[in-house]
What we know:
Radius of gyration: 15 Å
Bound molecules: uracil
Mean pLDDT: 98
Number of helices: 9
Number of domains: 1
Helix content: 40-55%
Distance between the termini: 31 Å
CATH superfamily: Uracil-DNA glycosylase-like domain
Number of strands: 6
Order of helices and strands: HHEEHHEHEHHEEHH
Largest sheet: 6 strands, mixed
CATH class: Alpha Beta
Oligomer: single chain
Amino acid sequence: MPTWEELKESCLNCQNCRLAETRTNVVFGVGSETSPILFIGEGPGEQEDLKGEPFVGRAGKLLDQMLGIIGLDRSKVYIANIVKCRPPQNRDPLPEEQEACIGYLRAQTALLRPKLIVCLGRIAAMKIISPTFKISADHGKWFDRAGVRMMALYHPAALLRDPRRKEETLPDLYAIEEELKKIGFYD
Ligand code: URA
């Protein structure tokens, strides 16, 4: 198994798919390498591509607020994406781009060994939880896989587009808080 540094180094030099041709920066991931909770987004947008950091645009500000509601911040969680390079015009990452990149996320997950995984939006939930995942019906539900509890939230960008869904997201956040309490996260 690579170390975090070795993994990051190989990811930053990745040429596995065409997104390498148009990226400014690879967005590897940020946060605590010992956190029990991993948040997974879809892929970098414009601001993330420019900075090399996940969730630094408008959706990222909302994610920070969502984390704050349950006493979390970026230093206490780990945040990564399904694809590490920005898809042009922020289109959905293609299945082959997701496949070319998923090894990095798997390796990050193997190093982190999180107890909880929270997918941000439908693309991440379909890749990580189930290909038939329906975000409107299945957000906030726990799925247990090999000792890891997983759920999906609406993507913060979707909440910005349709603020009515924010109300539905609150109970999901409190469900995450409950699980974190159970594992002594706040002690
Ligand atoms: N949206 C995502 O899914 N990931 C990011 O890093 C930023 C926006």
